[in-house]
Amino acid sequence: MADTQSFKDNFSDVAEGYRRYRPTYPEDLFRWLAEAAPRRERAWDCGCGSGQASVLLAPHFAHVDATDPSAAQVAKAEPHDGVHYAVASAEASGLPDGVADLVTVAQAIHWFDIDAFYREVRRVARPTGLLAVIGYGFLRVGPEIDALLDHLYRDVVGPYWPPERRHIDEGYRTIPFPFETLAAPAFAIERDWSADHLMGYIATWSAVSRYRQERGDDPLDGPGDALRQAWGDGQRPVRWPVFLKVGRVAS
């Protein structure tokens, strides 16, 4: 069994909230990836969390392997007949050699030992298979809400973000990617959310959990009230920019 003991576990304690409140990715992204892949027999979704990307891959591939080192996350993953979930590290998946037409890692590579993960990708992927590194940036709603979100993100819980979070803020631009890169279209996540959904999402931030653990109080008590008041009743459109690196593993 793959060693999952040394991974940085920032989300097991909020696995149910992660499943309920984290945004799902645009279906067009996975349609495009499937069309770019050499075949559509098998995909590996690494760092799958609760399966947001895994289930979107399933309509396009005969079989999807979805792995995550967090047993709590995998236990909350969305079931799908075409997806096989397993607890395994990114660096030692337990998958056979040369089977994956597409490897995806969505909003997770910054937690990995990247060099070891790339070695595992080269082992598991077919020749000419693809690797897609996917992430999404900070949510945007509108000027008033954005100012409150920025204050919460930077000034209230900012000191409690793990250092790896900077890779998200940088849009993965500084993460090494030693593969033949493919040009990709622009994608974005767009959802209509209530204030309750927004607050549920914010509660899944690793910095919020760490703040609560270290200080013993809730960083959302004041800022959360301000956000709810500014949000008002009903739903508002929420948008996250998607950033994407896609490359051929070997030629």
State the main characteristics.
alpha/beta, Rossmann fold, single chain, globular, 251 residues, 10 helices, 34% helix, 8-stranded mixed beta sheet
List unreliable stretches of 5+ residues.
1-7
CATH-scheme architecture of the domain at 12-139 and 162-191 and 238-248: 3-Layer(aba) Sandwich
By CATH, the topology of the domain at 12-139 and 162-191 and 238-248 is Rossmann fold
- Structural class from helices and strands? alpha/beta
Distance between the termini: 31 Å
Order of secondary-structure elements = HHEHEHEEHEHHEEHHHE
Q: Which bin fits the share of residues in helices? A: 25-40%
Globally, the shape reads: globular
* Helical stretch tally: 10
CATH class of the domain at 12-139 and 162-191 and 238-248: Alpha Beta
Q: How many E strands?
A: 8
Let me know the average pLDDT.
92
Largest sheet: 8 strands, mixed
Rg, Cα atoms, Å: 18 Å
Percentage of residues in DSSP E strands: 15-25%
CATH superfamily of the domain at 12-139 and 162-191 and 238-248: Vaccinia Virus protein VP39
